[in-house]
């Protein structure tokens, strides 16, 4: 059974949604038959970080609110993350463009290390305050999940997987993805947002029971907390 997930590395609900889905998958009797594929989605493709600007200021600017309101939104997401065991460190978070990070995830997929690469980048950004828009940082993080430093540097410098990122994003447009995380089960059912683990568990059971090789139109199961080009709805 195939589960495809569109998400961005700088989407707080994407990390939360990843944990909620993983918790459901952990208890799914047929988890060994589930193939999870990560797809690229850039919330702000043209984002250019301003040196010294905090994530609170960056978020406030994107949402058109005060820096204090930006901090309150960060606090809300920090609380939501703690519910799934994630300790967000927004005061250390460095705003970043994620185009290179998505390319590294595709390189990880090429070597069978896609989920590990995705997880490492999310942790680096939200828990450790590392700059995931920096080439040297990405190369270092890649080595921590088993990727060769020389290959990572060459691929990121040459844009080897740039087209793969754009193809993911084009596919997202074609199926109507407006916010992430966005989960597609066997090209049949879609779940938008960081839904409760119980809902993911229900969908896993439903899709497994109905498993067929056909590809009908998507049926939206639920909408929830997600991030879009204009920011995260909280």
UniProtKB/TrEMBL annotation:
CDD domains linked: DsbA_FrnE (cd03024)
Classification via Pfam families: DSBA (PF01323)
Keyword Protease: no
Protein name per Swiss-Prot or TrEMBL: Protein disulfide isomerase FrnE
Residue stretches making up the DSBA-like thioredoxin domain: 3-204
Keyword tRNA-binding tagged: no
A single GO molecular function term of this UniProt record: isomerase activity
UniProtKB keywords: Isomerase
Domain of life: Bacteria
Matching Gene3D superfamilies: Glutaredoxin (3.40.30.10)
């Amino acid at each position: 059974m195939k589960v495809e997930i569109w998400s961005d590395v700088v989407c707080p609900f994407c990390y939360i949604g990843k944990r909620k889905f993983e918790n459901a998958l952990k208890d799914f009797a047929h988890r060994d038959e589930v193939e999870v594929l990560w797809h690229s989605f850039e919330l702000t493709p043209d984002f250019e970080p301003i040196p010294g600007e905090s994530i609170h200021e960056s978020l406030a600017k994107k949402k058109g609110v005060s820096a204090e309101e930006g901090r309150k939104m960060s606090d809300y997401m920090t609380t939501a993350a703690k519910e799934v065991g994630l300790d967000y460190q927004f005061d250390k978070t460095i705003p970043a463009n994620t185009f290179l990070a998505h390319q590294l995830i595709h390189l990880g997929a090429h070597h069978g290390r896609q989920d590990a690469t995705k997880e490492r980048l999310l942790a680096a950004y939200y828990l450790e305050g590392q700059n995931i828009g920096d080439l040297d940082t990405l190369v270092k993080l890649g080595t921590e999940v088993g990727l060769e430093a020389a290959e990572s540097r060459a691929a990121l410098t040459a844009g080897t997987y740039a087209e793969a990122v754009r193809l993911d994003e084009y596919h997202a447009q074609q199926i109507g993805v407006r916010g992430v995380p966005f989960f597609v089960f066997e090209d049949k059912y879609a779940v938008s947002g960081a839904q409760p683990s119980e809902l993911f568990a229900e969908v896993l059971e439903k899709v497994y029971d109905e498993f067929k090789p056909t590809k009908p139109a998507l049926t939206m199961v639920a909408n929830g907390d997600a991030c879009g080009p204009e920011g995260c709805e909280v």
